[in-house]
């Protein structure tokens, strides 16, 4: 009995991998099995530090998946990899469409509110359909998360978020590498908003996932491992990359 108690205490001190159900996983065999099969996210799924490549995230066919993170964190790269699987709503496409019809001398900030409104109409229209949907958003604004959650709920669709938690230095390096620089003010705003979200992950976890079916956390290691996605069709079949 004493040895069993010691083994139990050692297991409690072992590194914890958060599961969708909120339970703990300490068995290496179970971790191998989890890495080999698809993960169906629910709740907070922490994949930070996951070095294995080929992690598969399996979402329902009608899921709305927000790909979030700081500007430069790798959202666009991940969306490009998953784009064949779903419709992608990207604010850069909205901005480019407006800039194409506006005079070149007119600063974007002058018509940005109108572009944002049109972008939100686009998201709402796509949510009303039943196809898989990927939404490019930093995820830093609570009002936007609530708005997305409300629209998904009214459409009867589960809302998931995949958050790239790579750190601000990595995000800044990503901006320079892609030659797409965000202003210091905008970057600082997103950084503060995501810091508040991440603090709720470590604190009041119910607040972190409010309105979300799942919140999947990736860092640089797990992002560079090339996480894959699939959308399950009714009947058990799926579309996946």
């Amino acid at each position: 009995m004493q040895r069993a108690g010691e083994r139990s205490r050692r297991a409690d001190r072992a590194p914890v991998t958060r599961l969708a159900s909120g339970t703990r996983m300490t068995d290496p065999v179970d971790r191998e099995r989890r890495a080999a099969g698809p993960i169906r996210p629910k709740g907070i799924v922490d994949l930070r530090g996951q070095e294995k490549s080929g992690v598969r995230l399996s979402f329902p066919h009608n899921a709305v998946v927000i790909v979030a993170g700081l500007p430069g964190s790798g959202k666009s790269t991940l969306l490009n990899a998953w784009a064949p699987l779903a419709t992608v709503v990207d604010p850069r496409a909205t901005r480019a469409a407006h800039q194409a019809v506006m005079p070149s001398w007119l600063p974007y900030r002058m018509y940005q509110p109108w572009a944002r409104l049109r972008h939100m109409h686009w998201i709402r229209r796509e949510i009303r359909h039943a196809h898989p949907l990927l939404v490019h958003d930093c995820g830093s604004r609570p009002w936007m998360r609530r708005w997305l959650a409300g629209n998904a709920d009214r459409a009867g669709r589960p809302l998931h978020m995949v958050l790239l938690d790579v750190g601000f230095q990595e995000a800044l390096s990503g901006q320079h590498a892609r030659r797409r620089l965000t202003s210091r003010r905008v970057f600082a705003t997103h950084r503060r908003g995501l810091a508040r979200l991440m603090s709720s992950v470590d604190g009041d976890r119910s607040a972190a996932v409010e309105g979300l079916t799942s919140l999947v956390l990736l860092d640089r290691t797990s992002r560079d491992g090339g996480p894959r996605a699939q959308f399950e069709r009714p009947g058990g079949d799926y579309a996946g990359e």
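The first strand starts at residue 17 and ends at 18. The CA atoms of residues 37 and 56 lie 7 Å apart.
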